[in-house]
Amino acid sequence: MSDTFKKIKHEMMKMVPPTLFFFVLLHAVLIVRALMVKGTGIAFETSASVLVASLILGKAVLIANMLPFINRFPDHPLIYNAAWKTLIYTIIAGILHFLERLFEFWKETHNLAAANQELLQHINWPQFWAIQILLFLMIGNYCMFSELGRVIGRDALRSLFLGPRVDVVPREWQEN
Fewer CB within 10 Å: C terminus or N terminus of the chain? Predict the structure, then answer.
């Protein structure tokens, strides 16, 4: 039982960084959406729904990281894997973003086909793509830091940003 508890704790701890990142990211997106449609009377998600979405996305990142094709360029410069993961995660985020809007229309129609038709007729595409661009940029940052942490280690990355500073640059990277 102790080994099972340790495994669950380990998995939960691995889920904390992406979940916190997406919690902050989704709140930023929520604020931007609210500012875009201020005064229209459109209701927005609450922090509780953002928390649930963050937990789902955090777990999705962990599951995606276990897929064999996600770490496609381990011996190339970090930008290859960061760009690849950014593309994958952004596509997933776009699908989830679209499904979230679809769910709003489904609650009114209770028919998936009718909800999709209503969504396609009433969606604000410039707003949708503006949010996708924000997600792309923020996910790109997450992927770059994640790849850097993978190469130099989480502890070294943490010490660079939060201290105490330690020498994390390998000697072969340093100039003579």
Answer: C
